[in-house]
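Example record used in the benchmark description.
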Amino acid sequence: MDGKTGKTHYLIELYDNDALENVISLEKGGYDGVALFYFRGHEPSVRRRNIIMQVVSERFGTEPVFVEVSEKGVDEAAEAIGSYIGKLAGRSFTIDLTGGDAVFIAAAGKIAALNSQKDGEAAADIELCRTDAFTGGIDILTGPDPAGGGNNGSRQGGRIGERNGFRLTFSDVIKLNGGSVIGKWPENFDRLGIRQYEIIRMWNAIKDIPADWNRFCSISYANNPGFDDNGFIVRRFSRSGEKVTAERVMSRLRKRGIVSRYEIGTDRVRYCLHESAKTAELYVAAGTALEMYTALAASGTGLFRECYTKVVLDYDGIVSGRDADPTNEIDVTMMYGAIPVFVSCKNTEPTKEYMYEINTMASHFGGKYAVPALVSSRPAMEPVRERAREMNLILIDDVQSLTLKEFRSEIVKKIRNTIPVIARNIT
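Model output (structure tokens):
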């Protein structure tokens, strides 16, 4: 319902191949219905159509309709839009031009111009707008200014609504882009309890010995990851130097109170975690401590919602359960308003290859608005920094030298500097 007029309020969109373009306007509009127009020959697949209908219905309480335009032309598009509006007389309409085809934009302008020439009841209640996907802000291009000052007003603009007011979830965005979330840890990173202390303690213990920690985590378990009947974790040496590595790491973890006791033999190391070490997940893989530390820092900035680690995504959204089913694991993910952020964490020096990898994953699963990021424990070379700038990729390196407070500040600075650049390149 339109709060200004009391009329039932409908949204008119042009269907776009980028999933977020089709739904971002719904985040701030409060619409009673939505119509997605498409040109013949550019119609969404049945699967894509069903996904959009499901997400929009679940999150925004309305079921979208799809309207075909017979030919890609200004007159044809204007006629289709006019016919749709005419059948719903007495309603108010917003035509959103976000990411719209030039033909659709011209047709919307024609509709608005013709409508403005009508008098009294003959004129429909129509406004044109453009939605900023990064802020949720809506710029009114034609139609009554909600502030009462004429056309070209603005509503819902200003500082980014990073955490509040958004209904789309991370899973929704992945689904809209054709994928599927099939696993993540934990369910809510803002409520970790004692795990927060464990993450910080573990990171501080190993942050300055990344090479040793990487080698240690590559030492194979004697059986499976986990504890034996006596509460020990057992790893078996298979390569030269692993015994020396285990001695260095065990000494460090024992000193920090993470490991209560350990035994190193000729072919294996047995160690028992201290009773206060509640997060066994931190001791399994080399990058896990950095992933957890990154998620902890990000969730503490206040910018993000839905902060997860170890997010497993099905590549095509069709979960078959077969071993050959292609999946990808993203180290850390967050939602910045309605924009997904994909983070790769590397407990080593960052490289261009790492950046290309996360950039590809972000684009595939999150669309053109997705934000890729690379976090590394070691410093980056200047050519890598320059390539990150060229790619509009967030690079936070040398995390081993940052306090938690400094890490959070760096995340805030980098994302607020990078988002406007990405937005300019898109629009």
